[in-house]
Write the structure tokens for this entry.
Amino acid sequence: MHRLYVHPLPIRIWHWLNALGFITMIVTGIQIRYIGLINLLSFRSAVLLHNAIGLVLIGNFFVWFLFYLFSDKIRVYLPELNPMKHFAASFRQMKFYGYGIFKGQPNPHHVSVYHKFNALQSMTYQIVMLLLVPIQFFTGVLLWDVDRFQPAINVLGGLRVVDTVHVLIFIFFAGFIFIHPYLASLGHTWSAHFKAMITGYEEVEDEEA
Ligand code: HEM
């Protein structure tokens, strides 16, 4: 086994703060949106906490964004130039998660410093971080002060549209918070990727290094 440094410190700090924040946002979000389903805090405290953590998460997002923007590590996210190759790799990975893994077949993706993610991870993380998270933050800020942001809300089609988009993406994240750790547990041991996101180092087979 070799150890490869794949998750730099700013990414690890961003990630665990983000994970904790998203869990808090989902729990308080359920209390705010589905009145009576859970009652962990008063309604007012749930709203205040949701707003405060939301602002922290927006700031924290820029740790991830600026780190990749100004680092050569952005190469882990650069797309495969040949789309056919990208889709073939994604398909191979889906086949592994849906079938091969249950037959004890090896993971088709081999980790290296600039290829820490497989094609599916790379695509999913970019959709999450560059599309869904920014839309969620933007609609969240609009809903935070509907009077102040009334003109922007109107341009987007009204409060109902903005709120529906925010709730739909919330439902996506409520599912993501279970599926993402499940997929992250499919390393050579169940805890391998979690440990890597804590220490920064991924253990890889000698021939992969
Ligand atoms: C309980 C919550 C979570 C756990 C246990 C968890 C676990 C992990 C692990 C182990 C990795 C390492 C790479 C991998 O194996 O895919 C990772 C990466 C990643 N996670 Fe999470 N995660 C959690 C929540 C979240 C949330 C809420 C988000 C986004 C909203 C998120 C976004 C990401 C992203 C974007 C990466 C790639 C990091 C990079 O750009 O280098 N995670 N996560």
Q: What stands out?
A: The chain has seven helices and two strands.
